[in-house]
Amino acid sequence: MKKIILTLAIATLGVSVQAQIKDSARRVVKMEGAYNFRDTGGYKTTDGKEVALGKVFRSDAIDKLSDKDLKTFKDKKIVTVVDFRGVEEAKKAQDRLPANTSYILCPAGSNNLPTAQDMAKFLKDKNFLFDMYGEGGLPYFGERYRTLFVQLLTLKPDEALLFHCTGGRDRTGMASALFLNILGVPQDVIENDYVASNYYLAKNPTMKGMYSGLSKMSGLTEAEIKQQMELRPELIRNFFAAINKKYGNVENFFQIEMGIGPREIAVLKQKYLK
């Protein structure tokens, strides 16, 4: 029955996204208090290797994790959490974590998030998300993601790491795209993994409330707002295009902005590919 429901639910999605959703059974982590909690592993690289499962996880907000969720969290051996939210954003919804979990806040580019009123104005500009993924966000990418990759380099073999933001889609989506890219996962697979957040977050009742509030402020319909906010492949393409334009390629970006060169990239591949 669950398989039938899943098939019906994704029937209206694009073919490539349908394939990604169907492949998510081994990747999605079922949580009562989070909706977009996923393993980044299981993807094939261009050279035939596979990103290791059970090592690196991504999620939306985790301030409402239940006791059952905390057990799942511990069972996954997650010992480090990297949070991309801003300082005030994180204070308003503090992560609920098992005892002794290492928590690191990386707020670069997030400390001055737009207010609801600002968002209402931005929504009338169809390019606002495109700019956030491109030149508008470029000054923050290195500082925001440097700590994540340093932690990945030092993570012990029997430990796992989680990175997240509020929706687990934009800041988290870019982090996941960088991680998969540097390991050699094909671009089309990265894009499918990225837009899959649309499906998982559609189950989050908070999203419905957000659309309703923004609709009242902007004068746009909820359907129009949903369309504006939907993740699209061209957004993550613009993310990489902005990096490539300034640095030449992703490897140069890692070296210049994060101090992670060929030797460290080789370590990442050794640790997270099989």
Which helices and strands occur, and which strands form pairs?
Elements: H1 2-9, H2 15-22, E1 38-39, E2 56-59, H3 67-75, E3 78-83, H4 87-92, E4 102-105, H5 116-122, H6 128-133, H7 138-154, E5 160-164, H8 171-183, H9 187-195, H10 197-201, H11 205-218, H12 222-229, H13 233-247, H14 250-258, H15 262-272
Parallel strand pairs: 2-5, 3-4, 3-5
Antiparallel strand pairs: 1-2
* Relative helix content: 40-55%
Tertiary shape: globular
Biggest sheet, strands in spatial order? 1-2-5-3-4
Mean pLDDT across residues:
89
Number of strands: 5
- The DSSP helix count reads 15
Low-confidence stretches: 1-12
What fraction strand? 5-15%
Content-based structural category: alpha/beta
Give me the strand/helix succession: HHEEHEHEHHHEHHHHHHHH
Please give the largest β-sheet.
5 strands, mixed
Rg measurement, Å: 18 Å
N- to C-terminal separation?
34 Å
Organism: Chryseobacterium tagetis
Pfam family, one: Y_phosphatase3
Signal peptide: 1-19
Protein name: Tyrosine-protein phosphatase
Summary keywords:
15 helices; globular; disordered N terminus; 53% helix; 274 residues; alpha/beta; single chain; five-stranded mixed sheet
How would you portray this structure in words?
This protein is α/β, with parallel strands linked by helices and 274 residues long. Helices cover 53% and strands 8% of the residues. The protein has 15 helices and five strands. The chain has helices at 2-9, 15-22, 67-75, 87-92, 116-122, 128-133, 138-154, 171-183, 187-195, 197-201, 205-218, 222-229, 233-247, 250-258, 262-272, and strands at 38-39, 56-59, 78-83, 102-105, 160-164. The protein has a five-stranded mixed β-sheet with strand order 1-2-5-3-4, with helices on both faces. Strand 3, helix 4 (87-92) and strand 4 form a beta-alpha-beta unit. Helix 11 (205-218) crosses helix 12 (222-229). The protein is globular and about 50 Å long. The relative contact order is 0.16. Keywords: Signal. Residues 1-19 form the signal peptide.
